[in-house]
Amino acid sequence: MKYSSFIANDGTVLAFQSSIDTNSIPNDQSGSQDSLILLLHGFSGSSEYFIRNVDALISSGLNWAVAPDMRGHGRSGHSRGGYHVARLAADLRELLAHLRATGLAARDTRIVPVGCSIGAAIVWTYIELFGDADFAGFIFVDQAPLQDRSRFDGWDESKAHRGCYDEHSMLAAQEAWISSPAETHKGLVKECLGYRYKRLEADAVTDEQARADEEFFTTISARCDGTWLARLLADHTRYDHREACELITKPTLVMAGERSGCFSLQGMGETVDRVNSAGHGKGSATMSIFPCGHWLFYEEPERFNTEVLSFVRSLRGG
Description:
- The protein has helices at 54-57, 85-101, 118-130, 167-179, 181-192, 194-197, 207-221, 226-238, 242-245, 265-278, 296-299, 301-315, and strands at residues 2-7, 13-18, 35-40, 63-68, 110-116, 138-141, 252-257, 285-290.
- The chain is an alpha/beta fold.
- It has a single domain, classed as Rossmann fold (3-Layer(aba) Sandwich).
- The protein has an eight-stranded mixed β-sheet, sandwiched between helices.
C-alpha cells in the first residue's frame, strides 16, 4: 500500500493508502481493476488497521484496495470544526471524485465500501445525503445503526451501544478521551478485541501477542487529538441511521462479532431487517456472525478476507 493525499474543499489535507500508486499508474494497470474495495476504519483508528487484509483482498489482481485516514485520524489533518459524521461523509464523496480523476476508478468501477464501526455510520450518512448509486454493494462491520438508546421506540440496552448510550455516558466518555487518553486507548482495546472483552479457554493468544496487539492499536489511537475526537463522539453517538438503512437498494452484508464489547447481535441485525423490509432491496441483506470481537478484520482476518472477496465476486455475477 502506498500513501497519497488530496486537499478537501475546506483546505484540509486528507491522506489515504492505495494498493496502486495513484500518482504513477503503469499503462498495463489502467482499467484492469474492475472492483474498488474501500476499507473504512473506526473511531480513533487509521488505514493501518487493515494490515492483515489488503494483500489477500488484492491477490486476484481484479481488486483495487483503498483505505483512507479519516479527517482527524492517522496522517490526515483535522480541521478546527469538521468533527461531524456528515463532514466525514462529504470527505468520502470527495475521495471518490479524486480517485475517479486518476483514471482508474471509472464510472463503471464496482465500488464496495467496507465500513467498520464509525466507517459504517459514514456510509449510512452518505446514503442519506447522496443516495447509494455510487456503490455496487455494502459491507457493514460491527456497528448498530443507532448508538444511543431511543425514547421514541423500543431501542433499549439490548440494541444500543454497551458503554456509550446516553448523555451521561457520552459526557463520561468525552472526559476520558480528553483527560486520560492513555488509559482510554487501552480501554478501547479491551472493549474491541474479543479475547480481551470475553476471553474463552479456547483462545490461543499468548501474553506476548496480547501486548503486541495493545501496542498496535494504542499507538494508532495516540495520533489523534483527544478533544477533537471527543467532539466527534458526541455527534456520532446521536446519529440515528435506521431510516437511512431503508434507502439501500444494493446487496448488503453485515459482519458482527459475537464477543463485541460495543454492540449486541440484535442491534447490528437491525440493519439487515431494515434493508430487507424496505422493499428497495428486499431480501438482499444478510448477516455473518464471527466468534470474536469488534475488530473482527484483525482477529479473524482469513475468514474476513474470504467473505469480503466472496461478496465482491457475487457483485460481478460469479
